[in-house]
Every structure is written in structure tokens, then in C-alpha cells.
Design a protein that fits this description.
The complex is a heterodimer. By secondary structure, chain A is α+β, with helices and mostly antiparallel strands. Helix content of chain A is 51%, strand content 18%. In chain A, strand 14 and strand 15 (535-541) form a beta hairpin. The chains are: A alpha+beta, B alpha+beta.
């Protein structure tokens, strides 16, 4: 991954994490605030319900008081107390009294019950006269108390009501007036509900949840049908029924979370020792505002995050470009220097770290160039010295016989003229020989300085190498010296290359000669060809004495030789030939384990085509 | 407190009538009597079987039409349009000689052909023939009850016209007829029985008991119906009340026959669970008599042998014989104020026995709470008519003895198509100005001889 990409990733990640962290924090705070508000609103509504309950209860109790003290009830109590025993026939005249009084007092429920708990008159279920009031014991005990909840059985259903009981005592047998108002939609509608809140009432009856028992003032008769099926309340209702305590739950009306409502379920209990669970008040709070706020925050976070990431990408691209441009320039300059352009320089735009780096780079190349020039100068001097030494050495050897020969001629002229002619002839031969030797030395130096430019043509490397080997085959097996085995390891797949066969033959001959010189005690000469990465490899390996590391490093230096009588130009010529062919020569050797020269030559198909054309 | 006895109502009403007649015996012609009723017939044709039988319809019929024979208060047959009659072939062939000089309200004379056509229309199964000025009725078998049958209002002789206003020979003729709403009658000057005292009778139909009573209180009605449960209060308020003997049967009628042994046990359980005594005391306010028989005791003489008290242990025992308890729907007349309470109470009683009844005003129900107006003071005719109305097998007179009647009723009850509950009287509140009215034993009333007085007793 490039530095620019790394920088971009870091920037984008930083922005994303920052936005995510802020969003999460805002959501958490929002949720906390919403829950707190919801709790406050629910508590307020519960308080309001309780106040309404108390107010309605007081009103019910007041009206029941009025009925109990009314003239018809008092007269009825008097009449029934006068009878020896109360029978339906005795109370038949009061059969419709409860209904008429309930209508006048606006009661949903009104029953007149005798001291034995037998219903004399019932407004809500007139046909129930003569039957015992089911909860008479609890009701008679509550005759002087306030209002209470009671589940009233009706003809085909039950109803939850707010009841009060009062006794009319004329004689020994009191008459109980049990009046109440239905806890229904109108009661719930009387609650001043805040926006997004609603109150429902579930009448607890039966063993299982029933949608028909759920009253919702905001819907029709009940909410068992429609877009909000009442069955959704079943888990919450069942939980309250099971644990008989306040519970809170979320009702999911649809897949849209905005339709969810949080319901607080409050059990409503009746009177008596067991305080039965008669109803469940459900206070619902819509989560729409919260969900929409949450969505708004998320959308904003996404927008901000997305924008931030885009901005981060742009910013990081700009910053990365500003940061990496000098670095890139430095890299390109370094590659240029590596390619040999020692005078490469980079721009120094400012004074920051990268500018200082660029300045240092420039100073480094300047210093390298200076040192290189110095080194070249030094090497040039050293080369001249070496040349001078070699020339002196080469020339000194023939000159000394020349001097001796001339001195011998002089001495012979002076001391024995009779032998002078003979000495002269011998000295002349010696002089000519040495002069010839001098000419040869000078010729080799001249030849080195006049290396011809390769004349490329189609050359089969294998054939060329094989030709060189055949040239030296006789010498390899010459009598008077230890035999040298010659091995060929040619890759026959090699095609022709563009090369100058004469120069290449000469270079290979030099290498074979060197190998033979390295194996005075015989050995194995291996000639190997192979393709490698679009190039042609030619290896000449011997099993001779090998070279030291220092010799390996200097072996291609002109005039350097490890031989006793070498000019030090052979390998220099080889390197020059290989280099002129666009190739490269290297050496691998260890003392005592032989030496391998490896020539890499380009196939040069394009050059070959050009040559053909 | 002692239970209210309907007999006192009858006695008091008759006494009131007698006193009125005694105090103001000088009859007066003129005036119009105003009558209000709950029934709302859409046809005045006596033979129209699509119209439900009611005491009001019977009464209206007898204001406009005459039958061949009538029965007096002792159930003795009296001549009417037929002056004489003769039975032959073992009461299978009857010949009635028509009264001469009788004319219909449209002025046409009463002929044997018209009378025969009228009887054929009312009784399609009869073979009615004309023999000179006589009408001959031939039955498939002996029919000793034919005279009583002919005395029924539905067998009144009517001449049917194209204007839906049949013409009769009764004391009043039709002046205006608005079906189910209003009927205006005028005295028939040429009535063969003589002109009635009243100039006319105006009948308001489809009026509730409450509206009728208000009309009476406001002086807008002279003759109104009173619900049985209201009769005691009306009487206690000092109004003039006319009540018949218990002639109306209130019963639960199943809409289908017994299907299985379980069904039979459940019906028996229901019959045993109903607390007729409490219902009569409270819901009916002491009116009527608890009944377990179709015919009232005054009609049959043996009704007391049918126990009417609830027997909850037996009811539960019977119910426990059945594994699956269905929920029966009990239909009742929604316009009848006491019917709903009765249905609810019966459902409550049934619940005590472990049965499940659901009161409903829907027409489709497993059983219905019905009021059956017993057709005639003749027990055989009343029983046969009740059996026909409730889907029981036909009841045919076999000799006329009480034993036969008992056996016939017993057989009818054994079908368990019906659970008798009460025998109720028919009560009317009468304006004190209306004199000389008549309340027949079949529950119908007559103003043929009534007149408008000053109102003083």
C-alpha cells in the first residue's frame, strides 16, 4: 500500500470513527432523555388516572348515598322489613326500581340487595332478581367505604365498573344499594392525554388473553380488528396476569419502528382479601418522535460522516500529494543516481523536513560527484602508474638483453676481434629477437587501444562455443601436459543471437586459454550455454586453483594479472567485447575449487532484424 | 304478601261493567269509539292466513263480519247468518240454511254462493257446496267441532272485492282503511242485527302499550290494550280494567323436532329449570298462571296435574346425561317489553341447570318465546290450533271426552316441541264513557252494542 493510500485510509477512518462516536453518544443521550420524558409523562398520566378514579369514585359514592337515602328505597326497606320472610313475590313491586333509579342517577349499574345478599332489583341485569349477589360478603363489608373496582357479570359479558355500596337500615334487615359506573371508553376519554399517548383498559377475565376485552377509546367498539391487532398486547397482558405487578413492554405494530409504542401496564385490583386482578390499565406512549429523531440523527450522521469521508479523501489526497510529491521526486532522483546520473538534483521548495531531506540529497549527490571525480582522477593516476609500471616492466625485460648484447659486442670488438664476427652474428640475432619482442609488446598495447566495434550478424551460440572448443582440442590433450577434459552442456533450444562472431570467438578463446592456464595439472573444462530471462548465458568453468576474492574484484581491471607473464589485457578485452555486445560478464570462484566465468548476452532479436535488413 | 290473583281482576272488571250498566242504563246513539292496539294487520280479510292471529284481529273482524253461527258465554251455539243447521252422516255432512234478507255492506244480498266461496277461501280443505239457499259442508270424517269452528272469526262470511276492502254483514262497514295504521268504521244502518249505537269506530294500529295508555289518559282512546304485567298497576290506579280468563299461552317453542335422546334430555332439563313462580311474581307482576300444559285449567279442567314448579336437581340430572351441551338461541319479539326479560330469566334459570341459552331477537333461533292466542274457548279447537301453530302433529278430536283431550294434549307435549310457561289473560283499559262493551271468552272484544255515555258510573 502506498503512503498516499495509507494516509487516505487513516484520514477516512479517523473521520468515520469520530462521526460514529458522536452519533452513538447523541443517540444514547437522546434515548436517555426520551425514556426520562416518557417516564415522567407516564407517571403524570397514572397520577391523572388515579385522580380521575378518585373523583369518579367520590361521585359514585355520593350518588349511591343519595339513592340509599331516597324515599323509594327507604319505603322498600320498610316494606320488606315488615314481611315475615322475603320472597320474590314480596319484592316484585320493586322489580323495576333499580332500573328507574339508575336512569335518573345516570348509573350504569345499580342493584338493590336484601340483607341476605339476594338481588331484589337489578338495573344492569333485570332478570337476575332473586339470585344471590356473588360478591355480597365483600360488598357488605365495603358499605361505608369509598369506591372500588368490581367486575360485574352481565347477561352475555362482564364489565368493569367503579362501585360504591351503601346500606339503608330501617329495621333489622338492611337493604344494600350497590351502584356503579362502567369503566369504559368514556372514562378513558375523560383523561387528558398528551400527544402521542393513549390509555387502554383490559378487563381481566378468563384464563387467557382475549382481544374482545380490550377497550380503546381511540378505536371502535374494541380493537380486536383493524390495523392494530389487539393480539399484540397478549404478551404484556399475560405477563401482568402472571406476575400481578406493573410491567412495561414495547408493542411492535408493524415493521416500521416508528409505529412502536411503549406500554406501561398497571394492574387494577378489586376489594376483598385476595384483591383479585380485575383490570389492566395500559398507558401507551408512541415511539414515533423518538424513532424519527433517531433516524434524523442517523441520517445526519451518515450525511456528515459521508461528507467527512469524502472531504477526508480530498483533503488527504491533497495533503498526501503535498507530502509525497517531494518524496517521489527524491525517489526518482535516487533512481537516477543509481542509473549513474550523479549530477541529479531535486527541487528544494521550502524549509520543512522534506525540503531539508531534498537539500541533503542534493548535497549528497554533489559530494558523491566530487568524490567520484576524485576517484576517477585517482584511478586514472593509478592506471597510468600501472601502465607505466607494466610498460617499464615489459620494456625493461627486452632492454636488458639488448644492453648486454650491445656491451658484449663492444667488449668483443675490443678484446677478441677474431671472435667478433661470430659474436656479432649471435648478438644481431639476439637484438632482432628482443626488438621483435618489443614490437610485439607495443602491438598488444596498440591492439587493446584499437578494439573494433562489433559487426553484428546471426550467430549460433552453441556452434560458436563448439568451434572455440575444437580449436583448443589439440592443446587440451597435448603431450607434455596433464590432459584436460572438455565437457559440453549446451541447451539446444537456443536460437541465434545478434553478435560479432570474430570478437565473441576471441573473447571465448581468451577465457578458454585462461582456464587452461589455471589447470596446469589437468582438470575439467566445462562449456555451458542456456537461456535465462530472455538472455543467453555462456559459462566457461574450470577446476583449477581458483581465485581469491580480491582477485575476483580486480580481475577485469586492465593490466591486472595474476599470471607471472601476463599483460593483464586478456580479461579486459573480454569484458570490452561483452560490454560492446550489450552483455555482462561476471566471475565466481573459490580458491582451490575452480573458476566459472558467466557471460550474459542479450538475444537482441530487434537488433538482429535490423542487421538483416 | 299474598300473590295477586287474576280472578279478582275478572270479577272486578265484570262488576265494573255491571255497575256501569246499572248506573247509566239509558242507551245513547251516536259518538265514535276510539280504539288503540299493538297489532298492525295489513289485511282485513278474515280468511287471510298470512296475517298472525290476534285478539285484536278477531275483534276487528267481528265488527265488520258475521259468522254462520256464534257461541254464547256458556259455549252454546247460537244462530247468526245461518238460521238453522243439520248434521248428517255421523257429523260428516252439515247443511246450513242462510238467513234471508241479509245484505253485505255494498248492498248485495247474502247468497249461498257467496257464503260458500268465503268458507272455501278460509278452509281450502273443506268441501263446501251450495244447495238452494243453504250451504253444505262435507268433511272427510266426523267433525263434531264444526259448529265451534264456524264460530271462529276467521270463518266469518266476507265478500271479497278488488279494492282490498272485503265487504261484510257486520254492524260496521269500512270507511277508511290504511293498512297497519288506521281503520275507520261507520255504523251500518241496514245491519240485519239492527244499527249499532255507535256512529263509528276509529282504530289506531301499531301503538305500544305505553302510547295506548297515554292516549287513554288524554281521552284520545276509549279502549286500549294493557300488558298483563301492567294490569295490576292499572287496576291499582283505579282505572276501569277488563280482563279475560287466561286465554293466551306463553311458551317456548322449538323450531325443530327432537333429534336424539340427548336432545330430549336437554329439553326436559330446560323445562324443569324454569322458575315459573318467580317469573310470574316479578316479571309478570302476578298476572297469569304458571303453566305446564297447553290448555288452561278453566278450558281443560286438568291443567293442575302438570307440575309447574322448577325442579333444579332433576334438571341438572337430566343435563348430566348429556356429554355435549349446545348453546341454544332463544328468539323473542323485540317489540314485546317483557319478552326480553323473560328470555333472559329463562336463560339464567337454564344456566343454573348447566344449559346454555342465548337470547336473541333474530328470527333464526333454536327455540322461540311465543305468545299463542288460543283460538277458541273450545278446548279441542284451541289445542288443534296451538298444535298447528307450533309444528306439533295435528290434533284431531276423537270423541270429545276429557280423557281424550288429556291424552291428546299429553301426546302433543310428549313431542317436546313446546314448553308451556304461562297462561295469560287479555286485559284492556276502558274509558269510563264507553258503555256496554263486551269481552268474549276467546279474548276478543265487541263494541257492537256499546255506546258512549257521560262517563259517570
Amino acid at each position: 500500500m502506498t503512503f498516499r493510500r495509507k494516509l487516505l485510509t487513516v484520514f477516512a477512518l479517523t473521520v468515520f470513527l469520530s462521526v460514529a462516536a458522536v452519533t452513538g453518544l447523541v443517540l444514547a443521550v437522546t434515548r436517555s432523555a426520551f425514556e426520562k420524558t416518557e417516564g415522567q409523562r407516564t407517571a403524570a398520566l397514572i397520577t391523572q388516572f388515579q385522580q380521575e378514579f378518585k373523583h369518579q369514585g367520590e361521585e359514585v359514592a355520593r350518588r349511591v348515598d343519595t339513592i340509599a337515602a331516597s324515599e323509594p328505597v327507604t319505603r322498600m326497606a320498610t316494606t320488606l322489613n315488615g314481611a315475615a320472610s322475603s320472597t320474590p313475590a314480596d319484592s316484585a313491586g320493586y322489580f323495576e326500581l333499580a332500573k328507574s333509579m339508575a336512569e335518573s342517577r345516570q348509573f350504569d349499574f345499580l342493584e338493590l340487595v336484601d340483607g341476605h345478599g339476594t338481588i331484589i332489583s337489578s338495573a344492569q341485569w333485570p332478570a337476575k332478581f332473586g339470585y344471590p349477589e356473588a360478591a355480597f360478603e365483600n360488598l357488605s363489608a365495603s358499605s361505608e367505604q369509598g369506591a372500588f373496582l368490581k367486575q360485574e357479570e352481565l347477561q352475555d359479558s362482564t364489565a368493569l365498573g367503579l362501585f360504591a355500596v351503601r346500606a339503608t337500615r330501617v329495621g333489622d334487615h338492611p337493604i344494600y344499594v350497590i351502584g356503579g359506573r362502567r369503566l369504559d371508553k368514556s372514562f378513558l376519554s375523560a383523561l387528558d392525554l398528551p400527544v402521542d399517548m393513549r390509555a387502554l383498559l383490559y378487563q381481566n377475565r378468563g384464563d387467557h388473553f382475549s382481544p374482545d376485552l380490550l377497550l380503546d377509546p381511540s378505536s371502535g367498539e374494541n380493537i380486536s380488528e383493524g390495523v392494530k391487532p389487539a393480539e399484540k398486547f397478549a404478551p404484556l397482558i399475560e405477563a401482568v396476569r402472571q406476575y400481578n405487578q406493573e410491567m412495561t413492554g414495547i408493542v411492535h405494530w408493524s415493521s416500521d419502528q416508528a409505529d412502536d409504542e411503549v406500554f406501561h401496564a398497571i394492574p387494577l385490583r378489586g376489594v376483598g382479601k385476595e384483591r383479585p386482578l380485575l383490570g389492566i390499565l395500559l398507558i401507551g406512549n408512541s415511539r414515533r418522535s423518538y424513532v424519527e429523531l433517531k433516524r434524523h440523527i442517523r441520517a445526519s450522521a451518515l450525511l456528515v460522516g459521508g461528507g467527512g469521508i469524502v472531504l477526508a479523501i480530498l483533503l488527504s489526497s491533497w495533503v498526501a500529494a503535498r507530502v509525497t510529491r517531494p518524496v517521489g521526486q527524491l525517489a526518482r532522483a535516487a533512481r537516477s543516481v543509481a542509473a549513474g546520473n550523479w549530477d541529479t538534483r531535486v527541487e528544494v521548495p521550502g524549509t520543512d523536513e522534506l525540503s531539508q531531506l531534498a537539500d541533503s540529497f542534493n548535497r549528497m549527490t554533489t559530494e558523491l560527484l566530487t568524490q567520484k571525480e576524485r576517484l576517477v582522477q585517482t584511478e586514472r593516476v593509478a592506471a597510468w602508474r600501472e601502465l607505466a609500471r607494466r610498460l617499464a616492466h615489459e620494456l625493461k625485460n627486452p632492454l636488458f638483453p639488448l644492453q648486454l648484447t650491445v656491451e658484449n659486442l663492444v667488449r668483443a670488438r675490443m678484446q677478441s676481434p677474431e671472435q667478433f664476427d661470430e659474436v656479432f652474428r649471435e648478438s644481431s640475432r639476439t637484438l632482432l629477437a628482443e626488438i621483435s619482442n618489443l614490437k610485439a609488446i607495443i602491438g598488444r598495447f596498440s591492439e587493446f587501444s584499437k578494439m573494433p566495434h562489433p559487426q553484428l550478424q546471426q550467430v549460433s551460440v552453441n556452434e560458436l562455443v563448439r568451434g572455440v572448443a575444437q580449436l583448443f582440442q589439440a592443446q587440451l590433450q597435448a603431450p607434455g601436459r596433464e590432459p584436460i577434459d572438455c565437457k559440453f552442456e549446451f541447451d539446444e533450444r537456443l536460437g541465434p543471437i545478434a553478435a560479432d562472431p570474430e570478437l565473441l570467438h576471441r573473447a571465448l578463446s581468451n577465457l578458454v586459454l585462461n582456464a587452461m592456464d589455471a589447470m596446469p595439472k589437468g582438470g575439467t573444462l566445462t562449456l555451458r550455454t542456456k537461456p535465462y530471462d530472455g538472455k543467453v548465458i555462456i559459462e566457461i568453468a574450470d577446476t583449477g586453483s581458483g581465485l581469491t576474492r580480491e582477485e575476483c574484484e580486480r580481475i577485469f581491471t586492465p593490466y591486472y594479472t595474476s599470471k607471472q607473464h601476463g599483460t593483464g589485457l586478456g580479461l579486459a578485452i573480454v569484458q570490452s567485447v561483452v560490454s560492446d555486445h550489450g552483455g555482462r560478464i561476471s566471475v565466481q570462484s573459490e580458491p582451490g575449487r575452480g573458476t566459472t566465468f558467466m557471460i550474459e548476452l542479450p538475444s537482441n532479436p530487434d537488433t538482429l532484424q535490423g542487421t538483416k535488413s | 304478601m299474598r300473590p295477586f290473583d287474576w280472578r279478582w281482576l275478572v270479577v272486578s272488571s265484570l262488576l265494573a261493567g255491571a255497575l256501569a250498566a246499572d248506573a247509566e242504563t239509558r242507551t245513547q246513539y251516536g259518538g265514535t269509539a276510539h280504539v288503540a292496539m299493538r297489532a298492525a294487520p295489513t289485511s282485513l280479510d278474515p280468511a287471510d292466513g298470512t296475517q298472525p292471529d290476534s285478539f285484536a284481529r278477531r275483534s276487528l273482524t267481528m265488527l265488520m263480519f258475521d259468522t254462520l253461527v256464534t257461541t254464547d258465554e256458556n259455549e252454546h251455539v247460537q244462530a247468526a247468518l245461518a238460521t238453522s243447521w243439520q248434521a248428517s252422516t255421523g257429523n260428516q255432512r252439515w247443511q246450513f240454511r242462510l238467513r234471508h234478507g241479509v245484505k253485505f255492506h255494498d248492498g248485495t244480498p247474502l247468497t249461498a254462493e257467496v257464503a260458500a266461496a268465503s268458507l272455501r277461501a278460509a278452509n281450502p280443505s273443506w268441501n263446501v257446496l251450495v244447495d238452494a239457499d243453504s250451504v253444505v259442508i262435507e268433511r272427510d270424517g266426523a267433525d263434531p267441532e264444526l259448529l265451534a269452528e264456524l264460530a271462529l272469526p276467521r270463518n266469518a262470511i266476507a265478500k271479497r272485492n278488488s279494492d282490498s276492502k272485503p265487504s261484510g254483514t257486520g254492524p260496521f262497514h269500512i270507511v277508511d282503511w290504511q293498512p297497519a295504521k288506521r281503520l275507520t268504521l261507520a255504523a251500518e244502518e241496514a245491519c240485519w242485527r239492527g244499527r249499532p249505537f255507535l256512529d263509528g269506530v276509529e282504530v289506531e294500529m301499531g301503538r305500544s302499550f305505553r302510547d295506548q295508555m297515554m292516549a287513554l289518559d288524554l281521552g284520545k282512546a276509549d279502549w286500549v290494550e294493557v300488558a298483563p304485567e301492567q294490569s295490576r298497576r292499572i287496576s291499582a290506579e283505579g282505572r276501569l280494567l277488563a280482563s279475560s280468563l287466561p286465554i293466551e299461552l306463553m311458551a317456548l317453542v322449538f323450531t325443530r323436532d327432537v333429534k336424539s335422546a340427548d336432545d330430549r334430555m336437554l329439553r326436559e332439563s330446560l323445562a324443569l329449570s324454569v322458575e315459573r313462580g318467580s317469573i310470574r311474581s316479578v316479571l309478570l307482576q302476578g298476572a297469569g298462571q304458571p303453566a305446564a300444559s297447553i290448555l288452561p285449567n278453566w278450558l281443560s279442567g286438568y291443567a293442575f296435574v302438570f307440575p309447574t314448579d322448577a325442579d333444579l336437581p332433576r334438571a341438572r340430572h337430566a343435563r348430566e346425561q348429556v356429554r355435549t351441551i349446545p348453546t341454544w338461541s332463544v328468539g323473542y319479539d323485540g317489540s314485546d317489553p317483557v319478552a326480553r326479560l323473560l328470555a333472559e330469566r329463562i336463560a339464567l334459570n337454564a344456566r343454573d341447570a348447566g344449559l346454555s341459552l342465548q337470547p336473541t331477537t333474530a328470527n333464526a333461533a333454536d327455540l322461540r318465546l311465543v305468545r299463542i292466542s288460543l283460538a277458541s274457548p273450545d278446548p279441542w279447537i284451541a289445542l288443534a290450533n296451538a298444535a298447528a301453530l307450533t309444528g306439533m302433529p295435528p290434533v284431531k278430536s276423537t270423541g270429545g271426552s276429557v280423557e281424550d283431550l288429556y291424552a291428546a294434549e299429553q301426546a302433543a307435549l310428549a313431542t317436546q316441541r313446546i314448553i308451556p310457561l304461562f297462561h295469560l289473560p287479555v286485559s284492556y283499559a276502558v274509558a269510563t264513557t264507553l258503555k256496554n262493551w263486551t269481552l268474549r271468552r276467546d279474548g276478543s272484544w265487541s263494541l257492537a252494542d256499546a255506546w258512549i255515555g257521560s262517563g259517570k258510573p
